[in-house]
Amino acid sequence: MSMSELYNTERPEPIPLEQHQRRRLEKDTQEIIACGKKRGVSEATIRSAIEQLQLLLPDILNLHRLSAASWVAILSDAGSIPIKLITVKDAYPGADIGILFQNQPRMLLSSPETLQQDAALVLAMLKGASDPSAIIQSCPDLATPATLSRCLAHIQSTHLGKNPVEVLERYPDVLRDMGESRVELTAEYGEMTTRD
Prior knowledge:
With 196 residues, the chain is mainly α.
């Protein structure tokens, strides 16, 4: 028997993706429940809120994007989540809010009023774009005013003499290609990082 035959016979069957996702969700849920108990939130409340959240935004729960404490804060106010989704959808009607919140779950920590104010600032900065929703759809990180401002300044410094909004609209992947808006899964749970 060769070494490759030996390794092939003893290798366990791969875990199906659905089963792996269920295990991850249950593991994350248990960690969030433990954190919630420390903050006085019952397990039943958290489980119920997670079920509601999964109906609205499937597979959004991820401890690599936000800490357990942040998820407890979001789930403690689960009733406001639909309002937040509607607020963002009103601001960016052409964008897929599932993708937007999947990439930026930290937005769920904001109040609907703050989300509305942020969207107004973002749309003001993207004034002149024919479809701001398409820009936000292609790069969800730009839904926060500070990130968009930083990225527009970066484009302006690298594309002298050109309107940064036009460059961004024409080449929505320009920031990803430059690494300017890359989000890494860090120990800070979703903090924005850049690479030069």
